Amino acid sequence: MEALNSSALEIFSQKIFNELLADEALTISLSAEETLFTRLSKAKVRQITNLIQAFLDLTFVKGNKTLSFTIPFRGVEEDVILAVKKIRESRTWMEKLPEDPYLVRPAFYGVTKEENLHSLPKNEEMLNGILDYANHVDLAGVFSSGDVVRATINSVGQFHWFKTRNFYLDYSLYNEKQKAVKSLFAGNEWDANALRVNLKESEDKLKMMDRESKKIERGSYRVYLAPSAVSELLGTLSWGGVSMGEHKRGNGSLRDLWEGKKKMSPKFSLTEDFSLGMSPRFNEKGEVSPSVLPLIEKGEFKNFLTSTRTANEYKVESNMAADWEGLRSPVIATGTLARDQILKELGTGLYLSDLHYLNWSDRETARLTGMTRYACFWVENGEIKSPIQDLRFDESYYNLFGDSLVDLTNFAEISPSTGSYFQRDVGGTKTPGILVSDFKFTL
User: Fold this and answer.
1) N or C: which end of the chain has fewer CB within 10 A?
2) Location of each CATH 3.30.2290.10 domain in the chain
């Protein structure tokens, strides 16, 4: 498809830019993909789709007013005709719009091109490998692979292009009691042996799920959270927790850290790190974020994510965050806890593989709530005894990554975003597991 080639976007954009008047500017952002999307159930293919799609978000600026619209993109002349028509209509619509006091005007943010196009086997080979290795288990989930593009170009010369090729198998294994173990196998280089190991680890956990589930009374417990569970915690932190705009508006969740009234553990460091290569450094405006931006360093506040619009409104310095000021490529620094020492160091407590339904319970004090999910176990004296019935927790980030943080693992796992509403997401996390001495469960 032409839309997945940078030359098609450049040719289209120059034709549109030639239509602009002296007091007008335009930023064009491209989201495109060529994806195999496969649904699996009982280790068989139930739905398979080859999807090719591309959309353009156009932000039109005239004077001190702005208006945005979206059109499909195929890389053909009809796209130009539609875009020109929309711009001409926008001139009329904008007469009735108020001026934007915090307008971020298109500027020259340089020219970059990044393509992470690793060689993958054919989709049929990867899919057949999954089905062969899982033919004796009840596997349900989604396998997806292909190319994803994000790009932005504006009328003052800036142009950024990001294209990546990857795959993921987001799956669960079920036993006869319909208890499940969830896992993710993903990357940009195919390793059949690593797939076998991943499935074997899930099978081993599933065998433990055959045991009778233990009911855990509410209270505080020593807990180990696996990297996938820690990744879920970061997802909630993106809902205003690291946003400068939200903090300025009084809706932030780490105000005490920002104001120096509280600190987290010196073992805890959080950065936005685009060297993971799963998300472009540029945002929807084409502004390029720092390759590595420390947010919390050894427990102390360093930066919030600050968009240029927030910077204009509150007279602070921008670090070129996306408009939503959420984490796009977060990394938590590792610790010293070795994989083979996790159960021993946990001793007696809970091993949590996954969490879900996370949300703020008290945003201002950085408290969140959620539930345990899938393969979570009761551990006694360093030995897994039984799965547990689902629990609801209510905890503070200041406790999880502060007073109660015992250690972090000396390894970290990358979890690419598997969202596919409207289009495949880009981005992901790199997180270690964490050992916590005091984790509160309410139900």
Assistant:
1) C
2) 2-208
What is the C-alpha to C-alpha distance for residues 364 and 300, in angstroms, rounded to an integer? 18
Give 245's pLDDT tier (boundaries 50, 70, 90): very high
Tokens (6 digits) for 86: 């929309």
Give the C-alpha separation, 334 to 267, whole Å. 9
User: Per-residue confidence at 1, pLDDT binned at 50, 70, 90?
Assistant: low
217 pLDDT higher than 90: yes
| C-beta separation of 251 from 360 below 8 A | no
Task: Give yes or no for a contact between 28 and 9, defined as CB atoms under 8 angstroms apart.
Answer: yes
Instruction: Give per-residue pLDDT as tens, 358-381.
Output: 999 999 999 999 999 889 999 999
Q: How far apart are the first and last CA of the chain?
A: 52
10 Å CB burial of residue 276 (0-12, 13-18, 19+) is: middle
Q: How far apart are CA 30 and CA 74, in angstroms?
A: 11
Q: Which helix (H) or strand (E) holds 386?
A: strand 383-387
Query: Which class for 105: exposed (0-12), middle (13-18), buried (19 or more C-beta within 10 A)?
Result: middle
For the structural domain made of 2-208, what CATH number should be given?
3.30.2290.10
